[in-house]
Amino acid sequence: MPWSNNSGGPWQPKNNGPWGQGPSGGGSGGGGGQRPPDIEDMLRRGQDSLRRVFPGGSPGGVGIVLIVLLGLLVWLATGVYTVKPNEIGIERVFGQFRSIASPGLNYNWPYPIGRVDKPTIAVQSVEVGARAVDGRSGTRRQAPQESLMLTGDENIVDIDFTVLWRIDERRPQDFVFNLRNNEQTVKAVAEASMREVIGKSNALAILTGARQNIETQVQELMQKTLNEYKAGVIVQQVQLLKVDPPQQVINAFRDVQAARADQERAQNEAQAYANKVVPESRGEAARIIQRAEAEKEKMIADAQGEAARFVRLYDEYKKAPDVTRQRLFLESIERIYGGMDKIILDQNGAGQGVVPFLPLNDAMRRTQPQPGAR
User: Cα–Cα distance between 166 and 110 in angstroms, integer?
Assistant: First the structure.
């Protein structure tokens, strides 16, 4: 019978058998090497195990049923699994998505009918432009093929950045079924989005004050692209680590930046001087205008007064022309000779008795007070 343990069976090896090791040194392949499994030895060990379970040497119908049931129970027990708090369970049945399992003890059909994927839902990071060589020392190795990017004004900038992302807990099955290489896909989308944003921006703005705006634009563009892929990924944050010109031209760029800073300083000084001079000039112009307006008003008032005075004199002149004429003559003579230092005597009147050689002019000079005299 096949379960007999008697020697000399049909698979009993003779002279090491067909799978045994041949004589040493025989054949071109050389000796040594691991022997292939001995099938008859395996059958003998199985026969001995069955003998220990079944004293008669072979199981009956009930024994076979018990063995099948025991194997079925063991197989079904393998469907119990545990989901950790930082994981999420995705159950499959015949390869298709079935349900999402919460953290704790769960059950699904065992393999090969069922399968459970347990991706981590913690925040993960991916670096673009540089890679960490040693996490302890913080050493980073540059990757110029990723970091060098062309700007909108045809300049080149060297950019290193990090993307923080996590699995969308609302659609984790998308992350498992729709992405083959999750981290590489996120990294490729991040690099493509950064290149698109940088390609639409000016180099000077990128290198100075547009970092926050760039981070926001890249995050929004990444999220939009991943949503179109149905990747089941949420982009938490984009962080720019380094934004510099290429290493080959960084010295020249710094000189250009210093020249721009000097230009801005000179412009600020000129603007400050203009802010000082222009108000002063405007104040002086306003003062001159006001003085001219005052002079204008004064001249108009004087002219109007003279005109009114002339009208009144003319009215009086019409009433008594001779008297008015005489009065005007005397006032005119008074205005003309009032400031002169000569004495004029009327020879036809009461002045005939005055000695013509009397030095009245010198007498008048002596009687007039001298300026500054006490």
Answer: 28
Identify whether residues 140 and 240 lie together within a single domain.
yes
Average pLDDT in the chain? 76
Region for residue 30 given its phi and psi (left: phi exceeds 0; alpha: psi -120 to 50; beta: otherwise): left
Taking Cα atoms as reference points, which of 248, 242, 154 lies closest to residue 204? 154
Q: Is the dihedral of CA 55, 58, 62, 66 positive or negative?
A: positive
The rounded radius of gyration (Å) of the Cα atoms in the chain is: 59
Residue 199: inside a domain, yes or no? yes
Q: Are residues 108 and 136 both part of a single domain?
A: no
**Residues of 79-96 as b/e, b for ≥16 C-beta within 10 angstroms?**
bebebeeebbbbbbeeee
User: Which amino acid belongs to residue 321?
Assistant: P
Two structure tokens written together for 321: 């022309």
Output the six-digit token pair for 113.
């009918």
DSSP assignment string, 16-47: TTTTS---TT-STT-S-SPPPP-HHHHHHHHH
Whether the per-residue pLDDT at 95 is higher than 90: the answer is: no
Lowest mean pLDDT among 1-10, 101-110, 173-182: 1-10
Choice between 357 and 206, residue whose per-residue pLDDT is larger: 206
Structure tokens at 267: 């412009």
Task: Note whether residue 223 is domain-resident.
Answer: yes
Cβ neighbours for 232, distance < 8 A, ≥ 6 positions apart? 167, 168, 171, 172, 173, 174, 175, 176, 178, 179
Domain total of the chain: 3
Q: Which residues form the domain of 66?
A: 39-77
